[in-house]
Every structure is written in structure tokens, then in C-alpha cells.
């Protein structure tokens, strides 16, 4: 199993991930994506879901119309790991 990142490693990784920040009071990272409409938001979720399923690493997320609020944490490890960083980077690429 992959291990939790240290606070320094998490900060370093976050500095390269546009839009992502730490969740206050929890070892997790978050970004809220805003799209033009529901169609784009759901398209993003569909593509991200395929990546998540392929890697067996899944987001916590909430969709309201054209926004998708994502929280990433590795449940098995109890915090942020390299798997969350990889999924966050993939989501940024998908969102363009
Ligand atoms: N997703 C996330 N975010 N964290 C996990 O620890 C995790 C997961 N574990 N997806 C996977 C599934 C595990 O439950 C299965 C059995 O491989």
C-alpha cells in the first residue's frame, strides 16, 4: 500500500497542481471545478470516472449544475498519497 505524504511533500505537490488546496482539518485535498454548463460538468465526471476506475482510486465528489467539488484522499492510508496527486493531475488535464 502507498504511504501518506509528509506535510512537506504534500505542499510541494500542491504547488504544482493548479486550483488544488488542502482541506482544513483533514488529510485530503480539494478543488472545485466550474464549467460552462451541466453537460460539460458531467462530461468531465464521466472521463474522470474512467480514469478513477482504471486505477482503482476513486474521488469523493459533488455535482451541482455546472460545478464539481472534488475531495481526494486515500481511504486505505488515511490521508493524501501519490495516488491522489496523480488523480488530481489527471483531473486538471481532463478539465483542460
Ligand atoms: N479510492 C480511494 N480514494 N481510496 C482508497 O483507499 C481506495 C479507493 N481503495 N478505491 C480502493 C478503491 C479499495 O477499496 C479497493 C478494494 O481496491
**Structural class per helix/strand content?**
alpha+beta
- Supply Rg: 13 Å
Query: What spatial form do the alpha-carbon principal axes imply?
Result: globular
Q: What does the main sheet amount to?
A: 4 strands, antiparallel
Strand order of the largest sheet: 1-2-4-3
CATH superfamily: Transcriptional coactivator/pterin dehydratase
Total domain count? 1
What separation lies between the terminal Cα atoms?
30 Å
Please tally the helical runs, counting DSSP H or I stretches of 4 or more residues.
3
For the record, the CATH class is: Alpha Beta
> What's the total count of β strands?
4
The CATH level-2 architecture is identified as: 2-Layer Sandwich
Give the distinct bound molecules: ligand H2B
Helix content: 40-55%
Order of helices and strands: HEEHEEH
CATH topology: Gyrase A, domain 2
Name the beta content range.
Answer: 15-25%
Average pLDDT over all residues: 98
Low-confidence stretches: none
Secondary-structure blueprint of this entry?
Blueprint: H1 7-15, E1 21-22, E2 29-34, H2 38-55, E3 60-64, E4 67-72, H3 82-95
Antiparallel strand pairs: 1-2, 2-4, 3-4
Helix pairs in contact: 2-3
Bound molecules: ligand H2B.
Ligand H2B binds near residues 56 and 74.
What does this structure look like?
The protein has a single domain, classed as Transcriptional coactivator/pterin dehydratase (Gyrase A, domain 2, 2-Layer Sandwich), CATH 3.30.1360. The protein is 43% helix and 20% strand. It has 3 helices and 4 strands; from the N terminus they run H-E-E-H-E-E-H. The protein has helices spanning 7-15, 38-55, 82-95; strands at 21-22, 29-34, 60-64, 67-72. Strands 1-2-4-3 form a 4-stranded antiparallel beta sheet, covered by helices on one side. A hairpin with a 6-residue loop joins strand 1 and strand 2 (29-34). Helix 2 (38-55) runs antiparallel to helix 3. The chain is globular and about 35 Å long. The N and C termini lie far apart (30 Å).
Amino acid at each position: 500500500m502507498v504511504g501518506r505524504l509528509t506535510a512537506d511533500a504534500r505542499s510541494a505537490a500542491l504547488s504544482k497542481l493548479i486550483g488544488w488546496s488542502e482541506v482544513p482539518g483533514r488529510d485530503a485535498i480539494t478543488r472545485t471545478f466550474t464549467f460552462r454548463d451541466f453537460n460539460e460538468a458531467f462530461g468531465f465526471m464521466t472521463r474522470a470516472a474512467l480514469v478513477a476506475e482504471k486505477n482503482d482510486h476513486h474521488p469523493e465528489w459533488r455535482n451541482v449544475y455546472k460545478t464539481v467539488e472534488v475531495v481526494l484522499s486515500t481511504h486505505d492510508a488515511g490521508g493524501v498519497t501519490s495516488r491522489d496527486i496523480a488523480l488530481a493531475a489527471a483531473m486538471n488535464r481532463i478539465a483542460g
